[in-house]
Amino acid sequence: MIIAELTITPLGEGTSVSKFVKEAFKAIRATGLKIELTPMSTVVEASSIDDIFRAVKLGEEAMLKLGAKRIIIDIKIDHRLDKDATMESKKRAVMEE
Amino acid sequence: MIIAELTITPLGEGTSVSKFVKEAFKAIRATGLKIELTPMSTVVEASSIDDIFRAVKLGEEAMLKLGAKRIIIDIKIDHRLDKDATMESKKRAVMEE
Amino acid sequence: MIIAELTITPLGEGTSVSKFVKEAFKAIRATGLKIELTPMSTVVEASSIDDIFRAVKLGEEAMLKLGAKRIIIDIKIDHRLDKDATMESKKRAVMEE
Amino acid sequence: MIIAELTITPLGEGTSVSKFVKEAFKAIRATGLKIELTPMSTVVEASSIDDIFRAVKLGEEAMLKLGAKRIIIDIKIDHRLDKDATMESKKRAVMEE
Fold it and tell me: Which of B3, B26, C34, C75 could form a disulfide with A75 if both were Cys (CB 3.0 to 4.6 A apart)?
């Protein structure tokens, strides 16, 4: 699987942006992809980079609909081909003694 | 509080780096700061940026001790002064209906 | 315009990855988009997020062709709708006295 | 040398933040470290991670002085021990045919 960490931030909408982040999170969740909300981003697990990019665009569109005029998007993708890494296996590999 | 998302990656140690990430995670956890492991990073909550940077250096040192010869560090810091944001309050603000 | 900062890094190919980065850079340059190489990334200017994502995929494919088995992609996108920002206008705004 | 890519963004100061970025850039430049402005960040070359972190704090302080109430800091550090990489050598390695 391909795992990505997404942060979508509206600039110019005050210091509190949770109204925007909430709508973007809902749009990403609605894709049906496996996701995990963290205090700094949303982690997404997908079978293709296109699915990741589609989720990002849906998240951004949700913010644009709320009137955002400038959006900063941060995406970090971990694409592993030699092993089927998942969100769970990556965390387990760090936590296992 | 100041919240930071840290990813420390050794380059040149093969495709599987969990041995290194595990030691860095342990070093960061030993700081006693509140932390959360995600599939892509470790989120840390601290009262100063110096505490964040100290945790990063401890994590990197743990990898250097294992012999890493090149390390990529990604840090994203959310420093909010108008409200005492925490890891929990940031997630709650997104999850609340 | 939409401006993006791209860093594509192969994991597991030794500490020196310039052979991979060079091929990815050539593939991104071949898109014809306006680009700027920095010591840490390639900055790209495009009229749509799809163009940015297409350039990223071409860069990654170039590394996959060289045999990379794990690839970390970092993308930071600045999408401004209230003003036509360009790579030059963003730098000028910072450098102007 | 250690090379880092820094982006310091004030949240809540409108869509145009160049007034803040300019002051942060000046503060980082005043450290005397070798720097390069890109359309998305400032790249810094230093002999220690402490120098990088000091530059980041000076940049943030410049924005706080202007009244910023929430600041997002992105730092990507490339720390190579097996070779003395510089900003120039990294770019040359990609551009050389």
Answer: C75
Which whole-number Å values give the CA distances from D16 to A13, B13, B18, in the listed order? 11, 42, 41
For D42-78, what is each residue's pLDDT tens digit?
A: 999 999 999 999 999 999 999 999 999 999 999 999 9
Tell me the CATH number at D46.
3.30.70.930
User: Tens digit of pLDDT for each residue in C58-85?
Assistant: 999 999 999 999 999 999 999 999 999 9
Q: In angstroms, rounded to a whole number, what is the distance separating the alpha carbons of residues C74 and C67?
A: 20
Number of domains in chain B: 1
**CA–CA min distance A28, chain B (Å):** 13
Query: Partners for B (CB, 8 Å, 3+ pairs)?
Result: A, C, D
User: Cβ–Cβ of B77/D73 closer than 8 Å?
Assistant: yes
How far apart, in Å, do the first and last CA atoms of chain A sit? 24
Residue C97 pLDDT = 76
CA dist D56 and C36 (Å) reads 23
* Cross-chain Cβ contact C14/B9 below 8 Å: no
pLDDT value at residue B97: 76
pLDDT at A28: 98
> What residue numbers bound the domain in which A84 lies?
2-95
- A&C contacts, CB < 8 Å: 63
Interface predicted TM-score (ipTM) over 0.90 = yes
